[in-house]
Fold this sequence. Notes:
Low-confidence stretches: 1-11, 204-215, 217-227
Amino acid sequence: MFEDDDEYGGGRGSSMFALQMLSTMAPVMIFMMVSSFLFPMLLYIVARWRDNKSPVGPDPQLGLKFALHFFRIQSYQLLLFGTAMLLYAMLSKEMKGPMREFIYRPAFGLLVPSAIVFGVASAMLGKTNNYGYPNVGRLLNGYNLMVSGLIGFAAFIWGFQVLFQKGESGEMGRIAWTGILVYTTAWVVQGALFGRAVLDAPPAANMPPSDLPPGPGVPGPMQKPLA
C-alpha cells in the first residue's frame, strides 16, 4: 500500500498508519480518563448524601466499598479496551508482521494488570457488607453500564454509518465493528445482569421495613391481636 513499506509492514507508511490509529483512539481514551475521575467523584457525593439520609444510620464501610467498586469498574473498562485492541489487531488487513506488535503488546499490557486488579477488587468486595448494603454497588454498577452503553451505542451508530456508505469501509469499518463486537456485547450483558440484580434483589438492609409483623420483643400494645 505504501511505497516505502518493507515486506513486514514497516517503514514510514506503517508509522503514518500508527499515528492515524492513535488519533482515532485519542477521543475514546480522553473520554475514559475524564469519566474515570470526574463522574465517580460526583457519585461519591451522592452516595454520602443518600447514606446520611438512611433511616437506619450510616454504612460503616461505604468508603471502602466505593474505592473497591471504583477500581473494579476502571479495570473492567480497561479490560474491554484491551480486548478491543486485540480483536482489531486480528481483524486488520493493514498491519503485517512486527507492525501487529504495535497493538498486541499494549493490549496485553492493559489486559494483564487490569485482570489482576479486577479479580482482587471483586474478591475484597466479597468480604465487605456489599450485599447487605447494596446501594453503593448499584450506584456504581449503573454508572459502569452507562459508560459501556455510551461507547457501545456510538460504535453501533458508527458501524451502520460505515455500512451504508459507498465503497469499501476499510480499516475504519473494522474499527467500528470491533467496537460493536466488544462494547455493544458488553452493554447487553451488563444490562441483563444489572436488571436482574436490581429487580430480583431482596429488600436492602438499610431500607426501613414495611408491612412486617413486629417481633416477639415488641411490647404488648404494639402487637396485632391473634386471629
